[in-house]
Design brief:
single chain; alpha/beta; nine-stranded mixed β-sheet; 11 strands
């Protein structure tokens, strides 16, 4: 049986939102919300949190989750996950990077991304994208755009609107001429691909865009992209959390767990 591990990297010392994994979403720590949603994914055979902070580890253990302590100097969540896979769980086949600031992550979205590597033995990395439907999304540099080839692999990721529509007069025209895609930050790797990735130094494209997935493309590794209608809702700031909690208070269909 293929072993598929979901890992939620979590650090306390966020610049914009210190202590974010422990912030309450509808009365529960955010890390617990993410964990419980991920537990509902049918394709994961195991799940854990990777952290460098005892406070986070204590909370995870308190709600019955699995947690691994990692070094405190990792530059990214991918590096933190690689430590777990390399040091603690050597028999894992596929690794899923589940963002710790998406408390409403859809289990079906995780399964969709995993299904690519389960069904295609040549695929090494996969991720998700959804249609961009507004000019504000298209122009927002915090929303990463992806261009996909005919084989459904990524040609490029950028914070800029890509591709450029030379003959369009307005941004609204851009959306009529081309199916622009928003990249969603769920990554699925074969174990070997992840361990190779963290050994490579960041390339020029990654440094200028500040998008680590470009490291794969710079090394000739294809990233397979599955399209979905699901849209992530990240909590980057305390203001984002306040807005999310306000919305959840009025959502009668919401179940926190």
């Amino acid at each position: 049986m293929m072993k598929i591990l979901g890992v939620i990297p979590a650090r306390y010392a966020s610049t914009r939102f210190p202590g974010k994994p422990l912030a309450l979403v509808a009365g529960k720590p955010m890390i617990q919300c993410v964990y419980e949603r991920a537990q509902q994914a049918r394709m994961l055979t195991d799940l854990c949190v990777a952290t460098d902070d005892e406070r986070i580890a204590n909370v995870v253990e308190g709600f019955g989750g699995q947690v691994f302590m990692t070094a405190d100097d990792h530059p990214s969540g991918s590096d933190r996950i690689a430590e777990v896979v390399g040091s603690y769980l050597p028999n894992i086949d596929i690794v899923v990077n589940i963002q710790g600031d998406e408390p409403l992550i859809a289990p079906d979205a995780i399964d969709l991304a995993v299904s690519i590597l389960r069904t295609d033995p040549n695929a090494e990395v996969s991720t998700l994208a959804r249609p961009i439907t507004s000019v504000s999304e298209l122009e927002n540099p915090n929303i990463v755009k992806v261009v996909v080839a005919s084989d459904q692999t990524a040609l490029y990721f950028s914070r800029s609107p890509i591709p450029f529509c030379r003959d369009c007069k307005t941004r609204e025209d851009w959306l009529k001429f081309y199916p622009y895609l928003k990249h969603l930050g769920v990554y699925v790797y074969r174990r070997e691909a992840l361990l190779e990735f963290v050994d490579w130094p960041p390339g020029n494209l990654e440094r200028i865009e500040q998008l680590e997935q470009l490291r794969f493309l710079e090394h000739g590794i294809k990233i397979h992209v599955a399209r979905t209608e699901y849209d992530s809702r990240c909590v980057d700031t305390p203001e984002d959390l306040e807005a999310l909690n306000r919305d959840l208070m009025t959502d009668k269909n919401f179940s926190n767990g």
